[in-house]
Structure of Amino acid decarboxylase:
Amino acid sequence: MSTPPLASGPEGPDALRPLLDTVLDALDSGRRARGGPLPAGGPDAVAARVRAATGDLLPPHGDPDALRTLVHTLTEGSADPAHPLCAAHLHCPPLAVATAADLAVSALNPSLDSWDQAPAASELETLVTRALAAEIYGPTPADALVTTGGTESNQLALLLARETHGATLRLVHGANAHHSLPRAAWLLGLPAPVVVPTPTGTLDPAALDDALATLPGPRTAVVVAATAGTTDTGRIDPLPDIAALCRTHGARLHIDAAYGGGLLFSDRHRSALTGLDAAHTVTLDLHKLGWQPVAAGLLAVRDTTDLTALRHRADYLNADDDTEAGLPDLLGRSLRTTRRPDILKIAVTLKTLGRDGLGTLVDQVCHRAHELAALIRAHPHLELHAPPTISTVLFRPTGATDTTVAETRRRLLTDGSAVLGRTRIDGRLWLKTTLLNPHTRPDDLAALLTLVEGNTSR
Ligand SMILES: Cc1ncc(COP(=O)(O)O)c(C=O)c1O
């Protein structure tokens, strides 16, 4: 076998072009073979198909068809968020333009741990992170770090808080918060978090006030984590009230806007995030309401001096004399070392669509959620949990037991006809739809409800 071509360099584009044709053909053939939002047959059938297609993974001699075979197999066996009936999770269909930009990143392979591995990418990251931080904080010198998603952003937020306030820092969060927050507290060796019950789905300011007033120890340092767009229902905690309480009690505030942060792009919905700028740190995640391929997380930081906690020296990457001579020091912008510029796809998306283009996508999915809620409300055999806040709609077959709800969902998953999520609220199990596909039409929503009804055993 001759030496395989590289993706960049003088031969890169010509080598990639036919391979991209192969990939695009296999994406198409795999999607047609699947025929729906999810492969049929459940885990055993999918595993058997993957094993049969994979064969010997490190054969003695290479297989020139491996690209076609494996891309086809992966596509056939994928849950496709671009299918209108794949609507369970905060799992968005990526924009074509963002995915195309990501290909350039794979070809060029810049690494953001030192300027000499990523000269332009490091400048682009500076520009985009400052622009996104300014979306939250206005024209202050705020900044943002690029992360692998909401989980890493929440971890970093707690790390920065701990480095400012010390290792006895207490996390206070609602029961509606994402599980990555208490997990981050565990990871960072912080005391066990105080969990404020959220029976109405959002963090109640009176309950938070009580929790803050009754914390053990007179001078306990506290970080409150609020949520703008909860994972289960998309609800937004009362941010201005929570911010006011944090000021009164001298607590630091982190807002997890992994889901709701995308509302910033919409003139219609932006006001739902009033109070976001009061947070010391804000989690954003553009692989949710931002239509990016994974990964596209950010942590916005109001006071950039907080970032000094991440400063780190490794002589081969940011020697003092290089930094003094003007080479940007990138190591303090992440806990990772090698780091791909996920910022390119974000920059390309922001510039290609503009504020109105992104805002329109946000408005479309929020509008679809209201349409779905209206269909459910009017349906004789379905119960709606509540009007949607963002694009999440919970419902259940009227009078069904939790077992029936769970079985309905699994039946749809197993025959590959629809991907719905599940969540337990008020002691009952609900089917969850998270609408993130701006191409979904009202007919698709009606078809989804027909499928649920037809697969509910009574
Ligand atoms: C509110 C919230 N925060 C954080 C996360 C974690 O994000 P990621 O899966 O990108 O790590 C999620 C994921 O759904 C989320 O809903």
In short: The domain at 103-352 is CATH 3.40.640.10 (Aspartate Aminotransferase; domain 2). The longest helix spans residues 343-378. The chain has three domains: 12-78, 103-352, 360-454. Residues 90, 149-151, 154, 178, 180, 227, 229, 231, 256, 258-259, 285, 297 surround pyridoxal-5'-phosphate (CB under 6 Å).
